[in-house]
Design a protein that fits this description.
Low-confidence stretches of chain A: none
Number of domains of chain A: 2
Number of strands of chain B: 14
CATH topology of the largest domain in chain B: Uridine Diphospho-n-acetylenolpyruvylglucosamine Reductase, domain 3
Oligomer: heterodimer
Shape of chain B: globular
CATH topology of the largest domain in chain A: Ubiquitin-like (UB roll)
Largest sheet of chain A: 5 strands, mixed
CATH architecture of the largest domain in chain A: Roll
Number of domains of chain B: 3
Strand order of the largest sheet of chain B: 4-5-10-6-7
Structural class of chain A: alpha+beta
Order of helices and strands of chain A: EEHEEEHHHH
Mean pLDDT of chain A: 96
Helix content of chain B: 25-40%
Mean pLDDT of chain B: 97
CATH superfamily of the largest domain in chain A: Beta-grasp domain
Strand order of the largest sheet of chain A: 2-1-5-3-4
CATH architecture of the largest domain in chain B: 2-Layer Sandwich
């Protein structure tokens, strides 16, 4: 049916529910139904990566997934990463290394980098470039983002030891 | 909301999917990974009446090597295929081409079978399927049929699959012993749509090429097999002279489309360069 249905899922560790027509994209559901506007909507056809979130631990374009398809999944968004007082090492590194300017691509970059560092704690520069090749940034020229991810990886490795 | 309105079903069994396809026909679209379908919906290039989501179906995510065939099910994600030992063993050409298939987040959800059904002209896997003599297993409420790759890809974003059919599995014959493979692509960024990609396989016996396959993507309305270039190699001594001739024949065999990324001359030039490189790689891997 085209009529809205209730979608229940876990977002950033919390049980959440909201109504969605089948055609509602996960990106719009997160922003409009759940009020999580940290996930940015850029191209809305899977090219820019700004809306990247983690679905069951894997990076996904939330503009290429229907909200109804996310029922029963565990979603992580930028809001779950850390706040002003408890920043994630990646957020701190993006700040320190100037890994952002306008900030539009940053939530997607961070969630993409989270997936990378959780699967590859000690990535090479090529690994980092390959991972963020899925995301467009129109400000930084990428170099500072690569340096930020590398710095975060080193810090997280240090903390783990 | 970007996509047009549609109904949505998420059945638990293949039988239910086939019944729904029989009922809705042209109005239905099957969604697996959705990494090509949802962009089409967002751009309102498609207006399906109903989406049939197959993600809950059990047992369709297999990647196996049986009876000399690589078998990849409808729900096998690109990431799993890319990382599969069965793929590198059975189809070195597919293994070489896979790192060029899109970016990580797309590979996490997109499927090989969905990619083949979408048949984007710049897509690597339809070309690989064509070079490898792959077969598509199509199922409907009326039964199952197998369609060879050369008959499956019928034009721009089109395949031989009927509206009431679903591609349940692709079967790729195991590459012959001693065959070498090469794959090269030029795109704006790695993972983006190819301007041009060329794949080649080669067998050599007694110092002569005995069997060559050369396929191109990004040069027309679907995967292109360069038969004239393959014929030019048959019986020739593998080496740069023969590869240059074959590359020239491959470039002559295409009538490329143009867009603001790459005009026809540039695409022809890429086919010439990439065919040489792919053949040289393939020759170096023959044994």
């Amino acid at each position: 049916m085209t009529t809205p249905r209730t979608v229940e899922l876990v977002v950033n560790g919390e049980h959440r529910a909201g109504d969605a027509e089948p055609r509602m994209l996960l990106s719009d559901f997160l922003r409009e139904q759940l009020g999580l506007t940290g996930t940015h909507v850029g191209c809305e056809h899977g090219v820019c990566g700004a809306c990247t979130v983690l679905v069951n631990g894997e990076a996904a374009r939330s503009c290429l997934m229907l909200a109804v398809q996310a029922a029963g999944t565990e979603v992580r968004t930028i809001e779950g990463l850390g706040g002003v007082d408890d920043m994630h090492p990646l957020q701190e590194a993006f700040w320190e290394k100037h890994g952002l300017q306008c900030g539009f691509c940053t939530p997607g970059m961070l969630m993409t980098a989270v997936e990378l560092l959780e699967s590859t704690p000690n990535p090479s520069l090529d690994d980092i470039r390959e991972a963020i090749s899925s995301n467009l940034c129109r400000c930084t020229g990428y170099q500072t983002i690569v340096e930020a991810v590398q710095a975060a990886a080193e810090r997280m490795q240090g903390e783990a030891q | 909301m970007k996509p047009p309105p549609f109904d949505y079903c998420c059945p638990d069994t293949l039988d239910e999917v086939l019944t729904l396809l029989a009922e809705h026909g042209e109005a239905a679209k099957v969604i697996a990974g959705g990494q090509s379908l949802v962009p089409m919906l967002n751009l309102r290039a498609l207006h399906p009446g109903v989406l049939i989501d197959i993600n809950r179906l059990p047992g369709l995510d297999h990647i196996s090597l049986e009876d000399g065939q690589l078998r990849v099910g409808a729900l096998a994600r690109h990431k799993a295929v890319l990382e599969s030992a069965a793929v590198s063993e059975a189809s070195p050409l597919m293994a070489l081409a896979y790192p060029y298939v899109s970016h990580g987040p797309i590979r996490n959800r997109g499927t090989l079978c969905g990619n083949l059904c979408h048949n984007d002209p710049a897509s690597e896997m339809p070309a690989v399927a064509l070079a490898s003599g792959a077969e598509m297993v199509l199922q409907s409420a009326g039964g199952t049929r197998t369609v060879a790759a050369e008959d499956f890809f019928t034009g721009m974003l089109s395949t031989a699959a009927e509206a009431n059919e679903i591609l349940v599995e692709v079967r790729v014959p195991r590459a012959p012993a001693g065959q070498g493979a090469g794959f090269h692509e030029v795109s704006p960024r790695k993972g983006d749509f190819a301007y041009v990609a060329v794949g080649a396989t080669l067998q050599v016996a007694d110092g002569a090429c005995t069997g060559a396959r050369i396929v191109c993507a990004g040069v027309g309305d679907g995967p292109h097999r360069a038969y004239a270039a393959e014929d030019a190699l048959t019986g020739a001594a593998p080496g740069d002279d023969a590869f240059r001739q074959a590359a020239a024949a491959a470039a002559d065999s295409i009538d490329p489309s143009e867009d603001f990324h790459a005009d026809a001359d540039y695409r022809r030039d890429l086919v010439r360069s990439l065919t040489r490189r792919a053949l040289a790689d393939a020759a170096s891997r023959c044994n």
